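ugh finaly. both done.
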Amino acid sequence: MNEITIAEIIPFSLIDYPELISAVFFTPFCNWRCGYCHNKELWDYSGEGKNYKKFLYNKKGLIDAIVICGGEPTIHVWLPELIEEIKSFGYKIKLDTNGTNPELLKNMSDKIDFVAMDVKTVKNKYSEVAEVDVNMKMIAESISVIRQFYKGSHVFRHTDTGLSFNQLVEMQNFVGEPILLQKKNL
């Protein structure tokens, strides 16, 4: 899909962008198939999309930021255009990602204000959790880009999938800094 498509909008959130009032834009589709995903309906999205431009206009001055998540936003060639459009309204931008597009993270570092990267598991189990072949060089590069270009404006997080304490330590060592542990939806 080459046209900007926002599958769903949460119009108001106090928890998705640290210390800011935000709205959340969900992009369709994902390059992974994690079994515990809470947005599986976006994997094969076939809807028309929401009128995000009208939303951006109507919410100006009422919210501070837009969180872009999915699915996986960075798989879309139109993401830089969407980011530029959001910025033109004066909103801050937080991007939630699985870390498969380090080039976009680097190239858009002057436009994206905050990044949250999901760290799925220990290195040797990524493909098993994502249920696709995962290029771990891209994941490691994304971690490096985020740590270099988004100092003080990022978080690495992990949805609790039952890893052992030693595996959590191994995962944290891979990232090189603390990871926010979140409970998965029941």
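ok and the 2nd:
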Amino acid sequence: MTDSAFADAIVRARTRNGLTQAELAEELGVSRSLVTAWETGRSEPSEELLAEMKAILGRIRREYGPDGQGSRRPAPTFQPRRSGRAPQGATTPQPKQTTTPAITRGARPSQMHLPVTTTPGEVPEAAPPTTRNGRAARTTNAGTDIYEIAAHLWDAADELRANSHLKAAEYSIPVLGLIFLKFADNRFAEAHAVLAPKATERNPLTKEKYQGQGVLYLPDEARFDRLLHLPGGENRGRAINDAMAAIEEENPQLRGVLPRTYQELSDDTIDRLLRSVNSMLTNIPGDAFGKVYEFFLGKFAIAEGAKGGEYFTPTPIVRLIVEIIEPFTGRILDPACGSGGMFVQSARFVDQHRNGKTGRLSIHGQEKTGETVKLAKMNLAVHGLEGDIRQSNTYYEDPFDCVGKFDYVMANPPFNVDKIDKDKLEGDRRFPFGLPRADNGNYIWIQAFYSALNDRGRAGFVMANSAADAGSSELEIRRKLIEDRCVDVIVAVGSNFFYTVTLPVTLWILDRSKRGTDREDKILFIDARKIFRQIDRAHRDWTPDQIEFLANVARLYRGELAESREGSEALMVQHFHDGAYQDVPGLCAVTSIEQIEEQGWSLNPGRYVGVAAAGDDGVDFKVRLRELNGELTRLHSEAAVLQQRIATNMTELLG
């Protein structure tokens, strides 16, 4: 085995077993710099240390052998992650966890057992490995847990960033670029395996034949294996920059998209990133790259704080919007598209509901930041999608001549934006109900979404809670929207769903096709604030069955059949046992426009849904009140003691 192959073996085995370099060093009683030297091929562990490592990382020499061709590595049993988002999908029983109760007594807890989704003819051989939170891991057809792989790759990449001078915002684009490059290389290799045996002197391989297979053409200098094994003295950063430029030259749809900032990284960092990406992403299927890319977008959004929130909308929020507006076929627009997550989830919806056929949606997006446009185009590419994404400021620019042109609009716009130059918007057809007098952009966005729809179009978007009750000129615009009979569903979402803000939000669903139906004079309100899964102290999301349940409420309201592919049957039976829509206190209510007018044209679900009936716990009220009063007295006493202790400590510190 070469030094490089042995180094790769250590990196792969360590990360697959969920250990950081520091943790492995601590286990072995050596310095972290020594582990770094092993993983960069500068030295090898002694036989004694290798023997100790076997128990931690698992028979490295036996698996890879002295010639590098050892037996095939078995699928690892992953230990739970130390951090990061929990993988989705489960088949094994979960440990008892503290969760927020469901909306009424007797409902299922928010942590639910979810079935494994299999393709026709696929039979799971055994339960997949469990993750750190006790849930079973989502697996690909090859039995690989893609979210665990993504998490381990993130840990490796984040560890390298921590040891560099780069901020998360400076590091994210190069890392995502390497994931993209590995995806393109895998797809190219698959196409080559099909085309090469058919090639002859008269019928040679050409760029057009590769592109005919639906893959990007990669010249030799852009192949991942070449970059992985560059000679010692060659500048790694320049080589990858040149590779990205070569890919753009051969594939014009990517021109100006791929990152070329790799010379900002040290050769050592690039080497280790290349090895990590190669070892973890070599044998995963093409569609899994999209999941890895999304995972990294979410993690970088958290790391970058407010800036990250500008380009990434949490996937559960996007999925619920998609499930409600049901974008089957036609033209779709996101005027604030960020990294393109709305398009990706829409394509998945088509995939699930049209027998796996894709390409039915014509994708159009606007984004004001050039770097984010690049993220979106790479995101589409790793999901096998194409679209027209333009850099433009939606307030002042309309590159698609949007009015009345789209079947679907989806967006998560920036909230409460001020200092918009409204003089530039006067007379713009996109704002038919007039411009708000308030220095706030919410109702400018809402009208942009509304006006882009054709007569059968649907829109779904995230909006600040304050827009549902805003007064003055904004109230007048809201009244006109409601009287236009296009507002169809309003969903209240609880706090902590977004990575960068803790405030609750509201989802608005517009449907211009509801005119002339029995829903014309009605609006469905859903209060989903008490339905969630707690990821960690500061973040929440929805499980797939919770998303399906909330979407099913809208389906029943429209007279459509409920779906059950994600396991929402128990929640449906609990609240809609006869399979028909009904108002459920604390969850949903269908309200007439007359009732909404009586409430001052408010679109706040809390005004209409009411409160779920509290169950009788069988404890006498006076007894319970006495217990609570005693608890309050005890807490007051403890607080007084702590306050005195703090005061004493402060006196000592300050002299």
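summary for the 2nd one i guess: The two ends are 65 Å apart (CA to CA).
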